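Revision sheet: structure tokens.
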Amino acid sequence: QCPDIGLEIFIHGAMCMSFSGRCMLSDYMTGRSSNRGDCAQPCRWNYHVMEEQRPGEYMPIIENDRGTFIFNSKDLCMIQYLPDLIKAGVGSLKIEGRMKSEFYTAVTTRAYRRAIDACCEDLDAYTANEKLHEELMQELCSVSHRNYSTGFYLGNKGEQIFSSSSYSRDSDFIGVVISSENKENSDLYETVFYLKGAFNVGEELEFLIPGQTENKKYIVENMLNSKGDSIQRAANAMMEVTVETAFKPSSGTIIRKWKVKNQ
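Predicted:
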């Protein structure tokens, strides 16, 4: 209907319970404006109700022993419906990422980049490729998120999570690679990264190397701290850790560790 107007849509991420993202609750209640990217997300808070003629009498809304979260919307995820959006004339896809980590940004944009490339190659093949959809959803579930939904796109009225405002994720963000150099007289590489999450010797780490679609996995056999001392556990945020890898990850590579249920 709008051939001369470029269309951009939100395709993924946290959704505001207010229309058009103009949430006034945050600004009114906390002084933090959502229009300036500083939303305090009051729609995720637990609320009571008050009847108009009974001021000061706050009645709990019970979903479980924690109360209920009547404004708490599910996260948006339209990756499986990308062909429909392309056919509708959408030219730009926007992922919600305010105050999100580099881990979230890297994983979500990488997943949608892969989906877009597959659609550009063959829209129908992408729609029918269940294996690819499973892989992409596994990636998107690896980062912090609430339950996914299609929002208002498919004629729904939106979906809420009443029992909790907590996030879930299937993997932990371990760190970001600083450098990787070939070890003298060896096929191994001394890979240095700064720590974002704890791990131990003997655990398997996964490296998401920029520009590569296939991730690299490696079981840590030993590691050193910044002083060159051998350690069994890395647990201090932002500390520098050196591990030996059988491949050379580039600077900026994201490292994660899958939780037990997905190993």
